[in-house]
Amino acid sequence: MGVLLVVCDGMADRPVVELGRRTPLQVAETPNMDKLAEVGSCGIMDPVAPGIPPGSDVANMALLGYDPYEHYAGRGALEALGAGLELGPGDVAFRCNFATVDASGVVLDRRAGRISTEKASVLAEAIREALEKADFGVEVEFVNTVQHRAVLVLRGEGLSKAISDTDPKVVGKPIKECVPLEDTAEARRTAEVVNRLTAFFREVLSSHPLNKELPKPANAILMRGAGSLPELKPLGELYGIRGACISAVALIKGVCRAAGLEVLDVPGATGSYDTDLGAKFSKAIWALGNGYDFVFLHIKATDVASHDHAVDKKVWFIGEVDKALGGALEALSLDEDYVVLTADHTTSLRTGQHEGDPVPLAIAGPEARPDGVERFDEISCSLGCLCRLRGVDLMPILMNLLGKVRRFGA
Ligand code: ZN
Ligand code: ZN
Fold first, then answer.
1. pLDDT, tens digit, for every residue of 61-83?
2. Which of 112, 270, 377, 379 holds its CA 20 to 30 A away from the CA of 29?
């Protein structure tokens, strides 16, 4: 008996005018999601707290049972874990972008024209070679991930994550100076290292021959989200389970690794509309049949559609997820395993932003109580027996169904 938790990023939405004031989930063709609602227990869930729009890192940390107000320690470390780097307790990690800047350091493109991963890899290698000959008083590790995205880790004594971003977040403004956010020697020192590195990266990159050919040269590195390793007691230790994560997104993989889940790579998982949903569900089914009790399956493109205000694409992609879910429900038995469906937050098609509205939740499986709800959407699920939960309540509920929660009291 195991749990497959399917988290569709930003799938929940508000009523949309173009859809006749219905949500994408209400409009999309979703017979399989509806089946989960019909045979299972339904509710709505505030990923973090009512009215709080969460980032995906914070939201998924909560869905895995960790109160983000207590445990969140910045995005950088989670990105680094997701990129496969190891992090020690005192290390400080950053999410980075290859960017295009002019001669005075004003940002012209925050993603260097979405440089290809191959080209970014060449530049990252040049950075690593230059770093070997340089001395910043701390160990510096730089790794590119997908396209313009990269991760920087500083290792050594006396570092602090209490420093500001260098990424101005908008074009037309110069790279920001990194400043300490607390009055400590560690924060001052870390900020100084970051500023020296920013200048160093510009020097290495602007003289690189590859950049001479690019219309938007990747001649600077922007840093943000300084973070350190969150101290999470692994799920394996908390519940005695073996868990796996299937996601294409480094940040989500990082959250899952921090929680002690094993990241299973799926060829064809892209984090985009073209992702191989069938392959992801197949891997999840394989994992449930091969010693894993808990599989966290994350699907990204629902969120992408909302960020892009792409109404039709969101409706269409929800339908695609439903078809893949249908395939999985044929291969799994709800008499043996639990299949749980939710979103990590609401992303509004209208605002293009994460919002603090609750998300729908359905828990189907051998001993889940059916509650008369027959459709999986934000409105129908609000009438279910799970009522309104917080994200951190989900794991205890699921682990209780698996018989993994110890009794409280005599
Ligand atoms: Zn998200
Ligand atoms: Zn998002």
1. 999 999 999 999 888 999 999 99
2. 270
* Encoded amino acid at 70, one letter: E
Residues 6 or more apart whose Cβ sits within 8 Å of residue 403: none
**Cα(251) to centroid(ligand 1), Å:** 10
Beta bridge partners of 135: none
Nearest to 146 by CA among 280, 10, 247, 264: 247
Ligand 1 centre distance from Cα of residue 211 (Å): 33
Contact 367, 347 (CB under 8 A): no
pLDDT in tens, 195-241: 999 999 999 999 999 999 999 999 999 999 999 988 899 999 999 99
pTM listed for this prediction: 0.90
Distance CA 361, CA 11 (A): 11
What is d(CA 15, CA 386) in angstroms, rounded to the nearest whole number? 22
- Yes or no: say if 393 and 387 are a contact pair by the CB < 8 Å rule: no
Q: How far apart are the first and last CA of the chain?
A: 27
What's the CA-to-centroid distance between 64 and ligand 2, angstroms? 18
Does residue 342 sit in helix, strand or coil?
A: strand
**Nearest ligand to the CA atom of 60:** 1
Cα 406 → chain centroid: 30
Distance, CA of 319 to CA of 203 (rounded, Å): 48
Helix (H) or strand (E) holding 207: none
Tokens found for residue 303? 């969120």
